[in-house]
Specification:
Shape of chain C: globular
Number of strands of chain A: 2
Largest sheet of chain A: 2 strands, antiparallel
Strand content of chain C: under 5%
Oligomer: heterotrimer
Structural class of chain A: mainly alpha
Radius of gyration of chain C: 24 Å
Largest sheet of chain C: 2 strands, antiparallel
Chains: A mainly alpha, B alpha/beta, C mainly alpha
Strand order of the largest sheet of chain C: 1-2
Number of helices of chain A: 14
Structural class of chain C: mainly alpha
Largest interface: B-C, 46 and 51 residues
Order of helices and strands of chain C: HHHHHHHHEHHHHEHHHHHHEEH
Helix content of chain A: over 70%
Shape of chain A: globular
CATH topology of the largest domain in chain C: ABC transporter involved in vitamin B12 uptake, BtuC
Number of strands of chain C: 4
Chain lengths: 318, 414, 432
């Protein structure tokens, strides 16, 4: 029972981290209709910048400055890259971000080399907050939870309660009309893109020390972010939250408990074939849940796309 | 930089040739390993060690035969089996007779089969495969062939030696085995179970599981299971980011015991573990670095650090590859007839500067050597890794590990 | 190898636009002759291996473009159809009795059928919608099958893959396919056959309707065509040819691994196709040739090849969304007007400095890289056949001066080129 609580906390951390990435991505998507493949690359840049800054000014300045740099870079990409490609249509836009992701990875390797960076948790947070039945919960994880919840609340407030938020929401659905009302829609687009990438940058800054800062970190996370926003429903902030937490908990629990395919199949009344070693499906029978934990979100996504193409909380067709 | 290194070697050779033997030739060794992409750091470091070993051990000592020089030609295989096969063909076309590769058993497997087929189909330009790091046991068992020589101990031998050491620890009651979900991870797990059962039946294996390779973002759930299983020790064959992620997460989440590993040193991993892994991480490997085995090795390491301040000699067997190949070529009296060289390599005994005697077992072309269990620490470290102050110190050794281990190899000789 | 640039470009694409059904065999004959005689020019085994790789990529890229270019479907997991076709063929190679009775050149048919089989299953649910839904399903399915490849060892052989021996097949008129050159002709034969079939497919009513559905699915539906079925047929056909490419891969390399299924391979074929140009039938062919050269030949020269490939790719998307084929086809109107020769001198005056500038820039990149990452004491580096010390000032000055001067020269000549371009396209400028 204790383990369940621990897993709930771990899953929450994973889910909230994922949310910080998917929140920005889903905003960008609903605005421009572009799946930004380079989104996870901005997450990586956040981690690397923060590492570089932390060498000189310490972790906290890294947390403050790195997301800003990433946000400015993101806005620049929108202004000088995406806007140019936009005229050619959606597929070239998507391919542009795809190429950008490759380029950023190469650039990071060029600048920082290919090894893992020794980017570490700050000393202040390097202690055990509390322990449940021998399982220690590091203080840093609590810190991660607070940061991401804070960001979610802030984002929700801005989007629903402020004038800027109203304009953004309106620009998401009816850009032409908003433009006709005298608002600078391209500027709104650029701003949202910048903020979205800055959010990814924050995620990178706080995830870098725990998940590792290395050139492959964007690729590891890359496609799972899309999966999240597709499951949640493209353009829905709440959907992104629900899907992130769902994925966080599903993968955590699947890894924590060794559920065997054999047991599941026996449970629903299919008996194990005799002489399993010669059976064509022998590997299928011996699958355990930790083995497939990280591909469960993909299965979920395909199922959702088949039966509910607009996602869990999405309003419009993808 | 490839071009640069090639040229660097070429100019060095040109200088040497003009001064010494006017008719000396170069013996090229193709180095086919990842030099770009996620595994490039391991590959590049390996390349540096090869170039350095060839330069110091052969070329500066006057070469082999009548002053023939070694030249390492680098090929980037991007750790892809397909690219490796293309680069193999390019290497063979350049007249290269010796292929060195180590990263990834998958690539090694593709290469050994391709080389076997090539040598059968083209008896005129046969090549030898010098495998310096791929440890899948199958390569010297079911899939062995005459052209393949392995200079590292295979996964089974390493586990045999590791469990010899573990068995002596009476306090050890519960062991958790975790690894990457592919052939090597499975081989490690199977060997660990079999060896522990034979040597210490009282040890309980409280967990034995596989996780997807290179896909796990967060190892916390696995660490939770390890901690709550009450394990005294963890055994893992993980490498690269998976090793670092698992190790850090296990330590962070409250695991107290030792972590027995295969590949938890060098390439940034030692640096990234730093203080947190002190006296916790142990790894099984060949070659003694701290304390260093011989004065020759000490000079070699110092010279290496002068040339590559950011590099590590974390694969000292590379020096054994060069040394043994040079000796075999001298013994065969030719570098062109690879069958003669291979025959000279078979059964060769060689004194390694990194400690101990080496023996190339003729039945399966598996090198038999001393194995050591190292501990990750910053005490008593003369040569650290990643300039972190931390390095590996030899804790215990097994001489001529698994000398009489069985092999299923059915060697077909030409 | 680059000669293929000039073989089949102009004519087929023109007809593609004009919609004429008449077929000139000329480009195909030239291409066939070229494939026939290339090995006499490039005799080395490695060159033949690279050409084989190119041909395989050509078929795969053409198959991919049946979706992307002709059907408007963006797939992120197309490698699995090629991979599964290839894996099936290796399994066939390993069925001794069965394999001994079929000649090797027929093997790609089986690969194609397996690729097609998988595409039929997946297409049944993935082609209901185009756009993002299709793209994300393809991503999910691709990731699933790639992940399964290390879990389901019985079929995929785990991480080390499965291997076979092509020479155990029934001898084909006495040829046992021991040598690379024999395999080359087998693959060349299949390149021509597959390319021709794919070209013909694009001429069929289904192929035509695929274009219509790509451009405006609603209108196509109103005309009485089911957009879904049209997409389904294209998808299945594309799966077949991807499977053929997989089979040829199996024959050439005799091994298939997880690499053949993963997202990296899927992403690469997207890059290849887009680089070549999705709007023209021959575009992917150009892309496959250029990309294989970059990957295999450039990577022998520099560690930074992937960086250059990334830059090339992003630049293509930003400035030439039509890809290489688009750039070539831009010149057709001028050629028709017989004014193409007006462009030659301005081109040389602008593009030559541009080329030098780009080389200068890449030299600077290489020097920075060498300065940062080379071993201590290793100051010497070689670029463009000159050796120098990267830690002294002179080479940097030289490189910067050359680069800046070249780009300045390019800018100076740019207006001239633009003017010449307009002049060359003035009369009868019926389309931009």
């Amino acid at each position: 029972m204790d383990l369940i609580l621990v897993n709930l906390i771990d899953g929450l951390v994973t889910g909230l981290l994922l949310f910080m990435l998917s929140a920005g991505l889903t905003l960008i998507f609903s605005m421009m209709g572009v799946l930004n493949f380079a989104h996870a690359s901005f997450y990586m840049l956040g981690a690397y910048f923060a590492y570089q800054i932390s060498l000189a000014l310490g972790f906290w300045m890294g947390l403050l400055i790195a997301p800003l740099i990433v946000g400015v870079l993101g806005a620049g990409v929108e202004r000088y890259g995406l806007r140019r490609v936009h005229q050619y249509g959606h597929v070239p836009e998507l391919i542009f971000t795809f190429g950008l992701a490759l380029l950023i990875e190469e650039l990071v390797q060029f600048l920082w080399g290919k090894n893992q960076m020794p980017y570490d948790i700050p000393e202040v947070l390097n202690f055990t907050a509390f322990a449940i039945a021998g399982n220690s919960i590091p203080a840093y994880k609590i810190f991660m939870i607070f940061i991401s919840v804070g960001i979610f609340i802030g984002l929700l407030y801005i989007l629903t309660k402020t004038r800027v938020g109203m304009i953004i929401q309106a620009a998401l659905s009816y850009p032409r009309t908003v433009e006709a009302l005298g608002h600078n829609v391209p500027l709104v687009f650029m701003g949202v893109f910048g903020v979205g990438t800055a959010l990814a940058g924050v995620a990178g800054v706080i995830a870098g020390p725990v998940l590792g800062t290395f050139p492959g970190m964007a690729f590891v996370l890359g496609s799972i972010v899309f999966v999240t926003i597709v499951i949640g429903g493209l353009g829905s902030l709440w959907g992104a939250l629900v899907a992130s937490l769902l994925i966080g908990w599903i993968t955590t629990f699947a890894k924590s408990y060794n559920v065997r395919m054999e047991d599941v199949l026996n449970g629903i009344g299919i008996s194990t074939p005799t002489n399993l070693d010669d059976n064509l499906f022998r590997d299928f029978w011996t699958i355990t849940s930790p083995q497939i934990a990280d591909i469960l979100p993909y299965i979920l996504m395909v199922l959702i796309l088949i039966f509910r193409p607009y996602g869990l909380l999405g309003k419009r067709d993808a | 930089m490839l071009k640069t290194t090639k040229f660097g070697v070429a100019t060095a050779l040109a200088l040497v040739m003009s001064t010494s033997a006017a008719y000396a030739e170069t013996i090229k060794i193709a180095f086919i390993d990842p030099l770009s992409g996620p595994f490039a750091s391991t590959g590049t470091n390996g390349l540096h060690q090869f170039e350095f070993a060839a330069e110091k051990m052969v070329n500066e000592a006057g070469g082999v035969l009548d002053g023939d020089m070694f030249e390492i030609v680098a090929f980037d295989n991007k750790i892809s089996p397909k690219e490796s096969l293309i680069q193999l063909q390019v290497a063979i076309d350049q007249g290269i007779r010796y292929i060195a590769q180590g990263n990834s058993s998958g690539v090694a497997n593709a290469l050994t089969e391709a080389i076997d087929k090539h040598n059968r189909r083209n008896p005129d330009d046969r090549v030898l495969f010098l495998n310096y790091a791929a440890v899948d046991p199958a390569l010297t068992n079911d899939k062995c062939n005459f052209w393949h020589f392995r200079f590292d101990a295979n996964a089974d031998i390493k586990m045999d030696a590791l469990t010899d050491v573990m068995a002596k620890d009476e306090s050890l009651k519960k062991v958790y085995i975790i690894g990457q979900d592919y052939s090597f991870g499975k081989a490690v797990a199977a060997a660990a179970v079999a060896n522990l059962e034979a040597k210490r039946p009282d040890i309980e294996i409280v967990g034995n599981e596989l996780h997807p390779i290179g896909k796990v973002k967060d190892f916390t759930p696995y660490s939770r299971k390890i901690v709550s299983s009450g394990a005294d020790a963890v055994i893992t064959g993980n490498w690269g980011a998976d090793m670092l992620g698992l190790g850090k997460s296990v330590i962070e989440n409250g695991f107290e015991g030792p972590i027995y590993t295969y590949y938890a040193a060098g390439s940034g991993i030692t640096g990234a573990f730093g203080e947190s892994g002190k006296d916790r991480i142990r790894l099984i490997a060949q070659g003694e670095i701290n304390p260093i085995a011989t004065e020759e090795a000490r000079q070699m390491y110092i010279a290496f650090k002068e040339k590559y301040p950011d590099g590590n000699i974390d694969q000292s067997r590379i020096f054994n590859v060069i040394g043994m190949l040079a000796e075999a070529i001298n013994e065969a009296g030719t570098a062109d007839d690879v069958v003669a060289v291979a025959t000279a390599l078979e059964g060769m005994e060689y004194e390694s500067m990194w400690g101990g005697k080496l023996f190339m077992r003729p039945q399966d072309h598996q090198l038999i050597q001393d194995m050591h269990v190292h501990v990750h620490t910053n005490e008593g470290v003369e040569f650290d890794y990643d300039n972190s102050g931390f390095g590996v110190v030899t804790e215990s050794s097994v001489t001529m590990a698994a000398m009489d281990s069985p092999t299923t190899c059915n060697m077909r000789r030409p | 190898m680059t000669d293929q640039l000039t073989t089949d470009p102009a004519k087929p694409a023109q007809r593609m636009r004009a919609g004429s059904m008449s077929i000139t065999l000329m480009p195909w004959i030239i291409a066939s002759l070229l494939l026939l005689f290339l090995p006499f020019i490039f005799q080395a085994n490695s060159a033949i291996t690279i050409m084989n790789q190119m041909s395989i990529t050509i078929i795969f890229a053409l198959a991919y473009n049946m979706l992307l270019g002709q059907g408007g479907m963006l797939s992120f997991g197309h490698a699995v159809y090629m991979g599964v076709g290839g894996f099936a063929c290796v399994h066939i190679m390993n069925m001794d009795d069965f394999f001994a009775n079929i000649p090797l050149p027929l093997l790609p048919v089986f690969g194609g059928l397996f690729g097609m089989g998988l595409a039929t299953i997946v297409g049944a649910f993935s082609t209901r919608k185009a756009g993002t839904v299709f793209a994300m399903i393809s991503l999910g399915v691709g990731e699933l099958i790639a992940a399964c490849s290390v879990i389901i060892v019985a079929f995929f052989g785990g991480e080390e893959g499965i291997s076979g021996d092509r020479t155990y097949g029934m001898p084909f008129f006495g040829v046992e396919f021991l040598q690379q050159i024999e395999v080359y002709y087998l693959i060349a034969f299949w390149v021509i056959i597959s390319a021709a079939l794919m070209y013909l497919f694009s001429r069929t009513p289904v192929g035509r309707m695929a274009n219509a559905v790509r451009d405006n699915p609603e209108r196509a539906e109103f005309l009485g065509y089911s957009a879904r079925w049209v997409r389904f047929y294209s998808f299945v056909a594309s799966g077949f040819f991807a499977g053929v490419a997989g089979a040829l891969f199996a024959i050439n390399y005799e091994i298939l691994t997880e690499e053949n299924l993963n997202l990296v391979t899927s992403g690469q074929i997207l890059l290849v196709t887009f680089l070549g140009g999705v709007g023209f039938f021959f575009g992917p062919i150009l892309g496959a040739i250029v990309f294989t050269l970059v990957q295999t030949v450039l990577s022998l020269q520099t560690e930074l090849w992937a960086f250059y490939a990334g830059v090339l790719f992003v630049a293509t998307v930003m400035f030439f969304p039509g890809g290489l084929a688009g750039v070539l086809m831009m010149h057709v109107p001028a050629m028709r007007l017989g004014k193409a020769k007006l462009l030659v001198v301005p081109y040389i005056k602008t593009l030559l400095p541009a080329l030098i500038g780009i080389l200068g820039l890449s030299a600077l990149v290489e020097m920075v890289f060498h300065f940062r990452h080379a071993a201590t004491g290793d100051h010497e580096m070689t670029l463009f056949w000159t050796t120098f010390d990267s830690h002294t000032l002179l080479p940097w000055i030289v490189a910067v001066v050359i680069t800046v001067a070249a780009f300045w020269l390019m800018r100076m000549n740019m207006p001239g080129m633009v003017a010449a371009w307009h002049q060359a396209n003035t009369v009868g400028k019926d389309r931009a």
